[in-house]
Amino acid sequence: AKDRAQYSYLDRTTNFAQYTKIIIDPIELWIAADTDLSDEEQAELQKLADYFYETVHSSLSQDYQIVEAPGADVMRLRIALTDVDSANPAMNTVSTVLPVGLAISSGKKLATGSHAYVGKAGVEVELLDSLSGKRLGAAIDERAGGKNPFNGRWGDAKKAFDYWADLMRERLQRLTRASRMKSSMQNVYI
How far apart are CA 140 and CA 4, in angstroms? Predict the structure, then answer.
């Protein structure tokens, strides 16, 4: 569904209401070994990872105390960026305005699920009990940008990061409410 991760796991026996704090590990960049990135490109990707970390931190700090040390009431959040591609603003403009570009972009959208020349981001997320290391939940997702040539080179990726940060907070709120009510988490998903 539109608002769900492509793949997800949730330990439905977890009492999420017991957690009031969270450790957010630095966001990892997983880049294929055969990828040849310049120092400038690596620096850009690190800035994106830092942006995502700050976005997640800002979102989750509204409901959880962000801490550094494990504890009985502490979850650990691990995030890896697995696939980040920049948009090509010039070609995005061409494929948005010119009829042949629109046709190519629409054909790519039908075939692959995303338009041509837009940015995209992939993420893997794991939520653990900070003491035992027990997996509480996990998700893998990918988001592609839309046909907006004014988003700039990394605007689509940043929009995905903002979306995921808000979604993490909303899902954790729902899981906590369900745990407090001791209701079934069958209809709660990541």
Answer: 10
Q: DSSP assignment, residue 149?
A: G
**What six digits make up the tokens of 181?**
């009510």
Query: pTM score, two decimals?
Result: 0.73
What single DSSP character describes residue 26?
A: P
Query: What is the amino acid identity at position 130?
Result: S
Which of 97, 148, 98, 140 shows the shortest CA–CA distance to 118? 148
The single-letter DSSP state of residue 64 is S
The pair of three-digit structure tokens given for residue 168, joined into one six-digit string = 């993490």
pLDDT per residue as tens digits for the range 61-86:
999 999 999 999 999 999 998 876 65
Phi and psi torsions of 49, nearest 5°: -60, -40
Does residue 71 sit in helix, strand or coil?
A: coil
